[in-house]
Amino acid sequence: MPSVDPHRLLVLRAVHRTGSVQAAAAALHLTASGVSQHLTRLEAETGLALLDRTRRGGGRSAQLTTAGVALAGRADDVALALAEAQREADRLREGAEGTVRVGAFSTALGRLVVPALLELVINDPALQVQVREVSADEGVALLRAGDLDLLVGERYSEATAPGAGPAPGLVEDDLCRDHFRIVVPRVWAVPASLEALLAGPWVTSPVRHGARRILQQLSVRHGVETGHQHVCTESQTMLALVAAGVGAAILPDLTLSYVPTDGVVTYGTAEDIGSRVLTVTGPDHRTAASDRFENVLREIALGGRAAP
Questions:
Q1: Are residues 51 and 14 in contact, defined by beta-carbon separation less than 8 angstroms?
Q2: Nearest 5 degrees, angle CA 264-CA 266-CA 268?
Q3: Which helix H or strand E contains 156, and what residues bound it?
């Protein structure tokens, strides 16, 4: 007896699910006679009557025999196995395997890169990721030297030339926009106005950092000279100082969603105080493995599956 053709099992499954040869033919992009021929051949391969032909005609729906229903149920396993085989073939054809060397600043590593790495461990085990914490300048130098494949960074102004990177041969893609918030100590009374808040003490970062520039812009915009400033570079230290009640601070959503914020509350203001764009930069000709990692990274940055 000839072996069973798995594709004919899928035809039987379509007839069972749609309830008629005509509907199955439409779903499978076949003619009705083509579906009938597949069923006839499947019956010959199995030596079983699969379609109850005594109930056909007069516009009635197609009915399967008990054997036909049983084999249609088995066809679900066939469909799943074929889909998995197709996905594996696609992955192998696209070459989404190998090693991707990724650099990023610390918060982006913890909030974006690590969740992407964990997802790939499950769904793309052939793709290996090497992680390196770097500053922006160090990361660009490593990219240009060929020692990094991708660099997660930040941009505080709009791109003047879409796709242009920080150096020739490098391309910068936007991941998402990251808004800044003002946070104040939980123990403080709510400031009466933004001007009153600006005149008080602040925990801020060095001049070259975006949060410091935003504070300076707010000060100029509202005509208020800020109070005493505590300066530090680490977000965790800044939040600890705010929680201790020594001043307010400006931090991005990415940081506030990742670093513990006990003792700190967000100061509500209708004013958009500013934002940055999170970016990923790499060579203009990237490997399939790098593209795969960037796609997962973008999914996490835009919505969602980042670590709590």
A1: no
A2: 150
A3: none
Q: Is 71 exposed, middle or buried (0-12, 13-18, 19+ CB in 10 A)?
A: buried
Q: CA–CA separation, 212 vs 119, rounded Å?
A: 35
Q: If 0-12 CB within 10 Å is exposed, 13-18 middle and 19+ buried, where does residue 57 land?
A: exposed
Task: Give the count of alpha carbons within 13 A of 129, CB side only.
Answer: 27
Greatest alpha-carbon pair distance for the chain in Å reads 91
**Bridge partners, residue 100, by sequence:** 129
Residues facing 42 on adjacent strands: none
Residues of the chain with pLDDT under 50: 58-59, 95, 305-308
Read off the pLDDT of residues 183-218 as tens digits, 9 standing for 90 and up: 999 999 988 899 999 999 999 988 888 888 899 999
Beta bridge partners of 128: 99
Are the CB atoms for 153 and 283 separated by under 8 Å?
A: no
> Which two three-digit tokens encode residue 18?
């749609």
Sign of the CA dihedral running 39, 41, 46, 48: positive
Strand locations in the chain (E): 98-104, 127-133, 150-155, 170-185, 202-204, 229-231, 249-252, 264-266, 275-283
**Phi and psi (nearest 5°) for 184?**
-130, 160
Is the Cβ–Cβ distance between 256 and 243 less than 8 Å? no
| Confidence (pTM) | 0.62
* Closest listed residue to residue 42, CA positions, set 9, 83, 86, 84: 9
Residues in the chain: 308
**3-class SS at 74?**
helix
